[in-house]
């Protein structure tokens, strides 16, 4: 497969992807196996869904991550689960990376084949068919990327409303600290507080889940199971999730935590009274997060 072939396919994804609309379901009907409302959008991870019951319409969920833990890999795994496996219409605001780079990471992560091999044409017929099948799935999905850098919340809100009008059912934003308000006189914390409030209200206005990533600057403390986030995040989000890898910071050495374990802490959610923890498996060389079972 040549560079031109991949580039042409990527253009097709962004410009002419077919719009898929999911039939509206009555929220009172539940899936009897997991008690998750059918109007919820699940993460694709059973370990998390059992706790959160999925992402709810009109709610803001914040996923807080320290640098180097795998924020982008977790985002890509969720995009794959929600857009390609569950066939939901997904909007992605990628403020950190260009959308074509995210797409290449998605292809590499899902197929297990490096982009160098794909672009060099150094792949077997079986691998070629695997890549082609995935690209066709992406092209037929309603997966929409917006990668304008240094975006204001007003601009994001306008674009999010347009996405919702065109059938998008869930929005991912990567990430909070790269957004700005239109008031240049605000200090950093006041600005971020205003942004959180505006995103919280936006989720209600367009009545779809918004999943916001935040890159924490302070360490996450484990000894007393307390996780740090600023109050402006805690107070303005419906669901708060921490993504961490205990082995990365040499935490819990006595317990000899495996390097392939990610700890997903659900610190705030309407379905839980106290903080709960789920574990996912990390496949490092693919940049994938998966359930253990």
Q: Overall 3D geometry?
A: globular
Q: Count up the domains.
A: 1
Class by alpha and beta content: alpha/beta
Query: Which value, in Å, is the CA radius of gyration?
Result: 19 Å
**H/E order of the elements?**
HHEHEHHHEHEHEHEEEE
End-to-end Cα distance, whole Å, is: 34 Å
Mean pLDDT: 81
* Helix proportion range: 25-40%
| DSSP summary, beta strand count | 9
Q: Per CATH, which architecture?
A: 3-Layer(aba) Sandwich
Q: Strand share of the residues?
A: 15-25%
List the helices and strands and how they pair.
Layout lengths: L2 H14 L29 H7 L7 E6 L5 H15 L4 E5 L4 H13 L3 H6 L4 H16 L2 E4 L6 H13 L4 E5 L13 H19 L3 E6 L15 H4 L4 E6 L16 E8 L7 E8 L4 E3 L3
Parallel strand pairs: 1-5, 1-6, 2-3, 2-4, 4-5
Antiparallel strand pairs: 6-7, 7-8, 8-9
Helix pairs in contact: 1-6, 3-4, 7-8
Describe the structure.
The chain is α/β, with parallel strands linked by helices. It has a single domain, classed as P-loop containing nucleotide triphosphate hydrolases (Rossmann fold, 3-Layer(aba) Sandwich). 37% of the residues lie in helices and 17% in strands. The protein has nine helices and nine strands. Strands 3-2-4-5-1-6-7-8-9 form a nine-stranded mixed β-sheet, sandwiched between helices. Helix 1 packs parallel to helix 6, helix 3 crosses helix 4 (99-111) and helix 7 (153-165) runs parallel beside helix 8. Residues 8-33 and 222-226 have low confidence and may be disordered.
